[in-house]
Amino acid sequence: MSETARILVIDDDESILKTISMKLQHAGYVVDTAKTGKQAIKKTEANFYNLAVIDIRLPDMEGTQLLTSLKETTPRMVKIILTGYPALKNAVSAVNNGADAYLMKPLNTDELLKVIKEHLNKQKREKEYGQEKVIDYVETRMRELGGD
After folding, report:
1. How far apart are CA 57 and CA 133, in angstroms?
2. How does DSSP classify residue 141?
3. Assigned CATH class of 6-121
4. Burial, 91: exposed, middle or buried (Cβ in 10 Å; 0-12, 13-18, 19+)?
5. 58 Cβ partners below 8 Å, 6+ apart?
6. Residue 26: what are its φ and ψ, rounded to 5°?
7. Residues of the chain with pLDDT > 70: what percent?
8. Which comes out higher in pLDDT, residue 148 or 40?
9. Which of the residues 39, 58, 83, 148 has an alpha carbon 20 to 30 A from that of 93?
10. Residues forming a β-bridge with 103
11. What is residue 1's predicted lDDT score, i.e. its pLDDT?
12. What is the pTM of this model?
């Protein structure tokens, strides 16, 4: 049985948090929420998340700042930025700071689910590929050491 992906939703707007959380839970994900960047950092230090959905404007920091902090605590976590302030500068900054995707508000939750599923599938394939490479390496080294 495959493990359920854990998602952290970070937004200071209560209605957006509830809407996204309900949609993701209905899709079968384990969802946690944070209303500030600091709260999100604490949660990622204490828990594992496969993916984070991050509002670009938070009360205590910009979403792009949070991306940088999350890169340090959870480098392999997929990070999706949400913005109601579309600007090329924001998009470039988000990508440069480690965002895997950039979506506009008002949010199309079906589009969000599609993007989340694509990125989680990619993350899973990369993990499986990494494990296969380790197994291949160990088997090769064992043959070399065994004299085969």
Report:
1. 40
2. H
3. alpha beta
4. middle
5. 10, 11, 12, 35, 36, 37, 66
6. -60, -30
7. 93
8. 40
9. 39
10. 82
11. 33
12. 0.83
